[in-house]
């Protein structure tokens, strides 16, 4: 696992809906703001409790195309800066 590139943060959202695809079955997409979350903590990068939220394990926060939490983005920027110094 690399440090500082933000890839260890996956996406999580409080609200989501199932999207059904003809061939691939169903998956979920967020219908509320997406936050960044690290494995092994109940908190998002911006400090919210996300225990009961839906976890998009396969979606890195960085590349998520849905509306993202500004505080989480700022926090990840800070972490990247810290890693460089
Ligand atoms: Zn957030």
Describe the protein in words:
- By secondary structure, the chain is of the alpha+beta class.
- The protein has one domain (9-75).
- The chain contains 1 helix and 5 strands, in the order βββββα.
- The strands form 2 sheets. The protein has a 3-stranded antiparallel β-sheet.
- The longest helix has 15 residues, at 70-84.
- It is elongated, with a radius of gyration of 13 Å.
- Bound molecules: zinc ion (ZN).
Short descriptors:
alpha+beta; 85 residues; binds zinc ion; two-stranded antiparallel ribbon; three-stranded antiparallel beta sheet; single chain; elongated
Tell me the quaternary state: single chain
SSE pattern: EEEEEH
Using the alpha-carbon principal axes, give the shape.
elongated
The main sheet orders its strands as 4-1-5
Structural class call reads alpha+beta
The value of Rg in angstroms is 13 Å
**Domains (count):** 1
Helix amount: 10-25%
Residue share in β-strands: 25-35%
Q: Which consecutive residue ranges, at least 5 long each, have pLDDT under 50?
A: none
Bound molecules: zinc ion
Mean pLDDT, nearest integer?
Answer: 89
Main beta-sheet annotation: 3 strands, antiparallel
> What's the number of extended β-strand segments?
5
- Helix tally? 1
N-to-C CA distance: 19 Å
In short:
With 85 residues, the chain is an alpha+beta fold. It is built from one helix and five strands; from the N terminus they run E-E-E-E-E-H.
């Amino acid at each position: 696992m690399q440090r500082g590139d933000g890839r260890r943060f996956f996406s999580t959202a409080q609200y989501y809906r199932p999207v059904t695809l003809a061939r691939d079955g169903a998956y979920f997409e967020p219908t509320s703001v997406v936050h960044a979350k690290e494995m092994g903590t109940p908190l998002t990068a911006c400090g919210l409790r996300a225990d009961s939220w839906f976890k998009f394990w396969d979606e890195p926060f960085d590349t998520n195309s849905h509306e993202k939490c500004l505080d989480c983005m700022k926090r990840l920027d800070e972490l990247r800066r810290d890693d460089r110094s």
